[in-house]
Structure formats: C-alpha cells, structure tokens
From TrEMBL:
Entry keyword annotation includes Transmembrane: yes
Residue spans crossing the bilayer: 187-206
Gene3D superfamilies to which the protein is assigned, alphabetical: 3.30.70.270, PAS domain (3.30.450.20)
Pfam families membership: GGDEF
The species this protein was found in: Polynucleobacter sphagniphilus
Enzyme Commission number, as recorded: 2.7.7.65
Domain GGDEF: 252-388
Protein name, per record: diguanylate cyclase
Biological process according to GO: cell adhesion involved in single-species biofilm formation; negative regulation of bacterial-type flagellum-dependent cell motility
Catalytic reactions on record: 2 GTP = 3',3'-c-di-GMP + 2 diphosphate
GO cellular component: plasma membrane
Annotated keywords: Membrane, Transmembrane, Transmembrane helix
Domain of life: Bacteria
Amino acid sequence: MAVYINENGVVQATSREVENRVVDLSSRLYFTSLKNNPRLPYAIGNLVIAKTTGLLTFHIATPIVDRTGRFRGIITQQVAANDLAINLSKSLKAIAGAQILVNLQGGNIAFMYPRPNDLSEIDFRLCLYVDGRVKQQARSNGIIDIAANKEYPNRSYVAYATSDKYGLITTVSLPVKVVLGDYVRSSSLLIIFIALAFLSLVYIFWRFYKKAVVVAESLIISFSDALTGLKNRRFFDTEFPKYWKEAIRSKNPISALFIDIDHFKIFNDDYGHDCGDQALIAVARAIEQFVTRPLDFCCRWGGEEFAVILPDTDEHGAISLASEILEAVRLTKLDFPNNQHPKITVSIGIASLVVNQANTTDDLIDMADKAMYVAKQSGGDRLAVFGKAPPRVGQ
C-alpha cells in the first residue's frame, strides 16, 4: 500500500481504502530520516505494527520536495511482512531451520523470514548479537561460524551481505545441526541462499522506489498550490473532515483562522501582478513558520485568502498564534523594482469550537470568515474573534 504523508508526518492519502481518521507518523524512522535530510533518495523503516492497517510491516520511503527544494512530505510504500514472505517463498526453497534477517545499518530490524506473527515473537537480543558479529567483519559478504553461547544458543553458520546503497545488512542463519554434508557443500548452499534472498529483497525495494517517485510527482501537483507551495483547497476539502471527526470523538476544541491580505486589489493595481505574487508567497511563508505542530495545517484558500486549522487548540491558543502571524507579516520586507518597499498587512478571523454532532465543518469556517470580515471592516491589520469586538490596530 502506498501512503502519502505530509511535511508534519500526518497521513494524507493511501492507495487502499482505510479508516477515515487522522494518523500521525511523525515519529517513524523513515519519516524523520527524510525530514532531517530530504536530499536522501529514500529511507527504509524498521519492522513495526502499522497504524493504518494493524499489520506487521516495514516501509520504503522517498521524499517530496517542491521546486525550491523545501521538504513537503514523503511517499512510502508500506510492505506487509507476510506479503514479502510470500514473494520470497516463490523464489527460494524452504530450508528447515534457516532464518533471513534484514537489519538497517542503525541496528533496527526491517524484515524477518520466516515471518513472526507480531513483534513479541522477535528475540531482539539475538538479532543484535548477529548484527554485531557481522559488523566486525572486514568483507562486505561472506560466512561466519558462530559458536553457541548465552546470546546465541545454537551453533550456526551465518551468511551475510551488506548494501551501502540501501543501508541494509542481510543475513541467513542455519544451525549446524541441520546442515548435511561437508562444510564446502553447506557453504555453497548458504551462499546460493543468501544471494537469492538478497537479490529478491533488493529487486522488491527497487520496484517500490520507482513506483513511489512517480506517485510523489503526481501528489505534489494534486495537493499543493503551485505559487505558494502551501496545500490547496482540494487538500483542505479532503482532510478537514477527518480532523472534524477526531474533534467530535475527543471533545477537544478545534480552531480555525481565516486570513486575508488587506487591500490586495489596490496592491496589484499599483505594483502589478508579479509583485502581487511575491506578496502572496511572503504571506504564505509568514503563516507556515508558525503552523508547526504535526496535526496543524494551512492552505491557500483562493486568491489572497488563506486558512489555518488548529486541532486541540482553544480560543486563547488560536489568538496567540494569530498574533504571531500578524506581527510576522508586518515585519515582512518586499523588494520591488525602482527601489519600492511596500508594506503588507493581513486581517485574521478566529473561530473556536468544542464540536458536537449538530455542528458542521462549514460552521467553523463560516464563523472564522465572518470574524475576518469584521477585522477588515475595522481597518485591517488586526485580528477578530467570532462574536467579540476586534482589538485596535497593532494589538
């Protein structure tokens, strides 16, 4: 299953229908690796119970970046351990007692064969011991003889191969007691087995990576505003109902900000549409620098309007964030031709609700929109809370 995860680590779309709810994956290894270094072509995650499906899975992910190189999320292929085991079983003849282990170079487990039913069946101490022995070897592949000890109860031959490209260490362990024939024959058997296993895994990773690149390109276009790089109205209409449903379930407040650039038509008439585009981009940057929590999101609503959704945020928290956005926009410097440095300001409407079944998503947006109109009618460059008088300019 392919999964699109935004820059905050929240699932936005899947290639297979799953429960319609907010899923936060911002702490996953593959996400943090790519967010911290979006120049990486891909990252492979450790073996986990997937939050979207509840299955034992690992992930291969590729970053999404916009035309300026800014990190905008990831596309990840979620691979059920059982599915990969089936693929391997088609290529490999089962050998009694053999175990395939794929470790990430950081020590986390990406895959095991035979497949465990859940994480509790994995002997992590044993896995780490094998991983440590392999890392002591000078060669990138070979066979080591591990004697029985308290960490490793059965003497075994372990064939290994490392891949710097994929950051993987693949091992196949075979207890000596099940090895038939002389050492040369058993070594050949292990070499063939590890080679087939390794090539099968690399091919699967490569296939998933190529798919993810194609999907990532289409999703950037589908869910992003081409000018500002923010999410677009289509994204908002797709995702906001999930946040609304979660707010009903949790009974926690949810807030919305509706933001409009003041006197934007006059701005365009005075300076031209190219300069107007620069102003839109500058306001977008000012907004998104404060919308940083994993579940918060902002989008370009249309024209010179923007919307921000703040789950688990009451009126006080929404006012605090809106005030920071107001000040950031005021401090924004625009450098136009002929040494022109116009100022831009915004009007912000705020609405907060503890949602119940009688409310709709349109209610919150309509309240924030009406509050924004009050702020604008009061002179702009200020915020207004729905149902309350707006503060004076500068507040």
